[in-house]
Write a structure and sequence with these properties.
Strand content: 35-45%
Shape: globular
Number of domains: 1
Number of helices: 2
Order of helices and strands: HEEEEHEEE
Strand order of the largest sheet: 1-4-3-2
Distance between the termini: 32 Å
Length: about 100
């Protein structure tokens, strides 16, 4: 709820998020704030670290040709229609710091 409120305050249309720590894949609509979150994380039985997501304004979600695709717990893709038959592919990626 806090993230959605800040996104709305700054009039952000969509955002790529990392280190979400959500398990598996899913989506959640924050009706009051006007955003839907799509995430991809590790299986429930594994440690909850990493995780990536997209937060997308609800009016944009309805116009997407396909929903964001979770590839694994560190990578998601989103295809945004531009004009004509052109698309932009946006990536949400997580790379842990090297120690």
């Amino acid at each position: 709820a806090l993230v959605a409120r800040d996104l709305a305050r700054y009039k952000v249309e969509f955002a790529a998020l990392s280190e979400t720590r959500f398990s598996e894949q899913g989506q959640l609509e924050e009706v009051g704030a006007g955003y839907t979150f799509f995430w991809s994380g590790r299986p429930k039985a594994e440690r909850r670290d990493a995780g990536v997501a997209f937060a997308i304004r609800n009016d944009i979600v309805g116009r997407l040709p396909c929903l964001p695709q979770g590839i694994n717990d560190r990578l998601m893709s989103l295809r945004l229609p531009l004009w004509g038959d052109k698309f932009a592919t946006i990536i949400s990626a997580y790379a842990p710091p090297m120690t």
